[in-house]
Amino acid sequence: MLHIKCPHCGMRSQNEFSYGGDASVKRPELNKEISDEEWDNFVYNRKSLRGKHLELWQHLFGCRQWIKVERDTATHEIFNTYKADEEIS
Amino acid sequence: MQKYSIFNLVKNAFSNHENWDLAWKDPTPKEEYDVVIIGGGGHGLATAYYLAKEHNITKVAIIEKGWIGGGNVGRNTTIIRSNYMHDENALFSEFGMDLWRKMSQDLNYNVMFSPRGIINLAHSDAQMNAYARRGNSMRLNGIDAVLLNREQVKEIIPMADFSEDVRFPIFGGLMQPSAGTARHDAVAWGYARQADSMGVDIIQNCEVTGFDVTAGKINGIRTSRGNIKTKKVGLCVAGSTNILAEKLNMTLPIETHLLQACVSEPVKPILDRVVTFGAGHFYISQSDKGEMVMGGDLDGYNSYAQRGNLPTLQHVLTEGIAMMPFLSKLKMLRTWGGIMDMSMDGSPIIDKTHIDGLYLNCGWCYGGFKATPASGWTFAHTIAQDRVHELNAGFSLNRFSTGHLIDEKGLGTKTWIS
């Protein structure tokens, strides 16, 4: 069982969250010429790293906020959690 | 190579079975090969076998990080089927069904193929309609499909919950009678033994650490046991595809996820089909040892752990008990997990790449085991001829950018949603 620290509510069980995938994926900027390759990378292509992975989760059965979680995909260790709009250095 | 036969079995009994040949050798890597297959799982071993058998290419090495058959070919629920709606998946899998039927004779190795039939249960009128449509599509492609009503399903699997007041009553089901199961380890070992006998080097405990690519061409690989020169490399490492792709500076339409399976304690024969629950994701069959073999959803987040988490197991088994209440009385014997290549449309990729001499076999999602022979056969063709076969032409890498997706379930790119 994962325990995820929601930045709004505190430590909660994984059962309260739903997964949202890779948080490093950026949507191509609007109002500019976008190539097929850029769309491809946004919609389909994923690095799917082994090790540290920044990902989106939603605290669905809690505050319903989307959050970012930095987790190890091999050991499931969670290093840090952030609010969705928080800048990560 | 010693043939496995009743005659040899009797003969070896006189020497207490101490003089059997080893099934495959343990060679040290040579300096150069015509083809190097990375990944000694079912697909890699099958590819090497068909390269030797169909294309006479025997200067082949299989490079395996661990031991052969220790990955997903040893971790699946052994289901074999071709009940697909889309042409690409249907024709490919049905070609594979034919290879499955001949496999034990072909490999001189009993893979215990058991065509016991698979039933997908339906729990609503809408689902019955969808199954009728899928069944019709299957039959148009020459695959056997039978639409069963509630009474017919009850006759076949009376142990399922047919009471009126359940949350998901059984309306009927779609059966593919020729589907079934096989002994998964035997598939890996059978392919390994034959490939080895035709001259393929099976190199275990050898990790690929890098690739030699110059001017868009592959020239060799670097491994923990030295460098190997080759002009052709086939990647058969579902579960670790993204890790090797990173070494090649490729980003693929694949996410790596964990899928669990489990078996109960062995019980007397009760279930002689493969059955899937239609209101969720749960499948079950009974092994020859009597264990109930069960599986279902992904754990739901990117994972390379090869071991699962309890919430998913609980969720999956809740579905199982809803479908067949007697399961609640059984004790769990083992649970385990394997890591999957989840492709963005749920279908695999068997294709050439932008690097000359680098071939890709990945993205098997939930369905890698049953594809083993067809995957090996078509991948061997793709490597040997340097062009895709019509059976795997649809499984191209660029279908995501061209929009020719094969989205069997209509799920889109959220691969962890099932």
How far apart the termini of chain B lie comes to 45 Å
Shape annotation of chain A: globular
Number of helices of chain A: 1
Task: Give the number of DSSP strands of chain A.
Answer: 6
Assign the CATH architecture of chain A: 2-Layer Sandwich
What is the global morphology of chain B?
globular
The SSE string of chain B, one letter per element, is HEHEEHEHEHEEHEEEEHEEEEHEEEHH
* Percent helix of chain A: under 10%
CATH fold label of chain A: Folate-binding fold
> Per DSSP, what share of the residues of chain A sits in E-state strands of 2 or more residues?
35-45%
Regions with little confidence, pLDDT below 50 for 5+ residues of chain A = none
**How can the largest sheet of chain B be summarized?**
8 strands, mixed
Quickly describe the structure.
The complex is a heterodimer of chains A (89) and B (418). With 89 residues, chain A is mainly beta.
Topology:
The complex is a heterodimer of chains A (89) and B (418).
Chain A: E1 3-6, E2 10-13, E3 18-22, H1 36-43, E4 52-58, E5 66-72, E6 78-83
Antiparallel strand pairs in A: 1-2, 3-4, 4-5, 5-6
Chain B: H1 6-13, E1 32-38, H2 42-55, E2 60-63, E3 79-80, H3 87-107, E4 118-122, H4 125-140, E5 146-149, H5 150-156, E6 172-176, E7 180-181, H6 184-197, E8 201-203, E9 208-214, E10 217-223, E11 226-235, H7 241-247, E12 254-264, E13 274-277, E14 282-286, E15 292-302, H8 310-323, E16 332-343, E17 349-352, E18 358-362, H9 372-385, H10 399-402
Helix pairs in contact in B: 2-6, 2-9, 3-9
Description:
With 89 residues, chain A is mainly beta. Chain A has a single domain (1-23, 48-89), classed as Folate-binding superfamily (Folate-binding fold). Helices cover 9% and strands 37% of the residues of chain A. The radius of gyration of chain A is 14 Å and the shape is globular. In chain B, 28% of the residues lie in helices and 26% in strands. In chain B, the strands form three sheets. In chain B, strands 1, 2, 8, 9, 10, 11, 17 and 18 form an eight-stranded mixed beta sheet that branches. In chain B, strands 5-6-4-13-14-15-12-16 form an eight-stranded mixed beta sheet. A two-stranded antiparallel sheet of chain B has the order 3-7. In chain B, helix 2 runs parallel beside helix 6. Chain A binds chain B through residues 1-2, 14-15, 18-19, 21-22, 36-37, 39-41, 43-50, 53, 55, 71, 73-76, and chain B through 242-243, 246, 251-256, 300-305, 309-311, 344, 400-401, 413-414, 416.
